[in-house]
UniProtKB/TrEMBL annotation, chain A:
This is Uncharacterized protein. The chain crosses the membrane at residues 86-107, 119-138, 166-186. Keywords: Membrane, Transmembrane, Transmembrane helix. The keyword Membrane applies.
UniProtKB/TrEMBL annotation, chain B:
It comes from Blastococcus xanthinilyticus. PANTHER family: PADR-FAMILY TRANSCRIPTIONAL REGULATOR, TRANSCRIPTIONAL REGULATOR RV3488. Pfam families: PadR. Residues 19-89 form the Transcription regulator PadR N-terminal domain. This is PadR family transcriptional regulator.
Amino acid sequence: MGKVLNSSEQAWSDALLLQLRMLDVPGTRIGEVLAEVQSHVAETGEHPREAFGSPREYADQVAAALGIRPAGTWARIRGTLRGSDLLLALVTGLAGFALADGLWTLAAGETSLFGLPAWAVSGVGALVLAAGTARFVLAANRGDDGDPVRDPRTGADMAPFTRTQIAVLAGLPALFLVMTVVGGLLSR
Amino acid sequence: MAEERWPGEWMRGVLSLCVLRVVADGPTYGYAIAARLADAGLGSVKGGTLYPILTRLETEGLVSSSWEAGDGGPGRKFFTLTAAGDRALLERADQWRVFTERAAGLLSSPSVPA
C-alpha cells in the first residue's frame, strides 16, 4: 500500500485508531474503518476532518453503529490497561532504578548499596531489566498484540511497531544508564 | 434546485432506507452512494454519516461488502444487497410510503378555527 494520506491526514487517522482502540472496537473492524476513510478522502479530495468530523466524534459514531456504548475519557484509558502490563512496567521500573543506582555507586567507587554489595544490586537489576526489554522487543517484532489492526485489502498490520520506535524505546534508557555511569565517575 | 439542507431528524429517519435503496441498484461504494443521494435531491451526505449507516446495515445482515483494488488508489469498498436486505427494503419502503401519505394527509387538511 503506497502513501495514501498526507501527514496531517495520517495524524487524523492515527488519532481515530487510538480512539477506536480505547472504545474496544475489534482490530479487524478498525482496519475496515481506516480503509474506508482512506478510500473516501482519495475519492472526494476532502480532509478527513471535513468528511468525518473529529476523530473522537467519529469513533463514537462507529462504536454506536456497532452497538458499543461510548465511554468517558477515564473509562477509555482504564479499558486499555491490563494488570499484567502495569505489573511489568512496575517491575521494569524498579529494576531500572536498582541498575542505575548500582552503576552510579560502582562508578563512584563505593561497594555497598542498601546494605548489599553494589555489584549484586546492579546485576539483579540488569537481569530483570534485560528480561523485561527482551519480552517487549520480541512481542513488538512478532506484532503480537492479540488483536492487530488488519488492513482488509492486504491483510497487513496497519499499526506496526517500526524499528525506529523500538530503537528509541530501548535506546533512550540505555543512554540514561551510560550517563549514570559517567555521572558516578565524575562524582569521585 | 439549490443545495438542499433537510432537517437532521428527517435525514436520520429515512437515510438508512434510502441507502438500502441505492445499494439495491447493484454493487456500489461510499462516494457513489453519496453522489446518488445528492442527485436524488437529499442534499450532501458526509462520509461521517454515511459509513456508520453502511456499517449498521452490514451488522444487521442487510448488505455485504468486499474490497476491490483501485488503479493506484486505496481501493473501493463495494456494498451489495443481501436477500434479507431485499426483503427489508420492500417492507420498509412500503411502510414509509403509508407513513408519508398519512403525514401529508394530515398536513394538507384545512385547519379548523377553534
